Amino acid sequence: MEEVPGRGAISLAVVLRFVDIAVEALAEAREEVDALNVYPVPDGDTGTNMWLTVSAARDAVREATGGGDPTADLGTALGALARGALLGARGNSGVIFSEMLGAIARRLAATSSGERNAVVMAEALRHASDAAYAAVGDPVEGTMLTVGRAAAEAATERAGRPDARARDVFAAAAEAARAALARTPEQLAVLRDAGVVDAGGRGLSVVLDAAETVLTGRRPVPVTAPLGSHAIPQPVTVQHDLSPDGPSYEVMYLLDADDDRIPPLRKALADLGDSLVVVGGEGLWNVHVHVDDVGAAIEAGIDAGRPHRVRVTHFAEQVAEKRRRAPVRTGRRVVAVAAGPGLARLFEEAGAVVVRGGPGRRPSTGELLEAITSCGASEVVVLPNDHDSVRVAQVAASTAESDAQGGLRVAVIPTPAQVSGLAALAVHEPGRSFDQDVLEMTATARHARQGAVTVAARRAMTMAGPCEVGDVLGVVAGDFVVVGDDQLDVATQVLERLLGGGGEMVTIVAGAEDPEGALATRCAGWVEERYPAVDVLVYDGGQERYPLLVAVE
């Protein structure tokens, strides 16, 4: 960091160099990071997601500074960096990384005259770590969260020395991150068993190394990460969604509160109900939660600060209230992520706005935000149809609602698979109230048992035992439960497991590797012969990496 002795002097030139070098560093490392994958199919795209996130931040900064003019306004550039990262985020790792970049940008923008750069940068890294932990509902140690926290702690310790400069702080942070990354296999058995370090932590370490290079000119020697056949799953976000037996009231209010009061508020409200969203910053927050105990939800806000514009709605009265409040209704749309051309046609024929996605090309926050805001509806339901895109969809939804300032309602149904989204869309009914429609779609998606057939791209250990490259894998609810050498045999075992709990309808979706639908057709024949009372639907999905997707309702 270029510094003026005794004064804070955050340089835009350094910010511009950092985003350039970070993009280049992640571009070089992304294949390595992607390869840190605990799964036998190449669904791990952590490195790609982080590279795309910082690339979007870099592009936003350059656009805001007229192509990279170092004399442009620093505050504008930092604001663009934060929003660019947010809109460019893909997957869990990308969202967490965008939260960290945003936190750093906000702290740098708030620098005042007289602050030591070393202290500012240490605080920025601490804010980034705090933001990363706040981004997930159930933090898992041994991930990029742990690596970021170690970097922040080392930075804080180094900044406490009176002679510390920003370059010293980032050198200490980068070194601590590399050390913490090397320890991640000790914290997660899945990493230890696979002989790899955490993918997100490795990506974060690359970025911190880039920052050290910008400030010192040195290129640190990275941790040598053994590349096995596995990668760490990302931290899991706790989902709070409607259920048929869910809370009866929707509580919303604006809240004047200090930022440090929000984490305990989120915890208190999460214990009271579901569908929790708390968004905002700089002292003003928008709170939304579904509860049975209205008083407790409001008291939690009083404990945190000053709630105002409080609104309580009983779901049974929602339709009548909406009619009174909004005489002109612009309708409701569904935004669905589709992993193949055939699936895109299916969603479009059902009336959905389609965003292309799938492993290796998951949609960004910005792409989903654009689909939500441009569809012209006042109520939007989002189907991410992929477990690693749920958090991205939630960020896009909250951003859309915040930008619309009350003119838009968005609900994300955490559909973990394409067939889950098809099941949810099948019961979509715009004539119902928004909350009732979301409830029915959510319940249907949850009740649809889903499976798949794929082929192992690397050696790995699965729930069904070890697999080798080329083995056929059967998937049920995201777990590999069958290992075999014949696609039809594995597919029928998956169907048998799914139908073991009963079912009235089976949906079979043929992938790109089964263009004529031969495997899908044979599976349909097997179901009709073994379960004559069960209806079977067969579609051409065109999805990659999965010759067959299956759902049982």
TrEMBL record:
InterPro entries: DegV_domain_contain, DhaL_dom, DhaL_dom_sf, FakA-like_C, FakA-like_M, YloV-like
Cross-referenced NCBIfam families: YloV
Protein name as annotated: DAK2 domain-containing protein
Domain DhaL: 13-213
Lineage: Bacteria, Bacillati, Actinomycetota, Actinomycetes, Propionibacteriales
Record-linked Pfam families: Dak2 (PF02734), FakA-like_C (PF13684), FakA-like_M (PF21645)
Source organism superkingdom: Bacteria
SMART domains, per database record: Dak1_2, Dak2
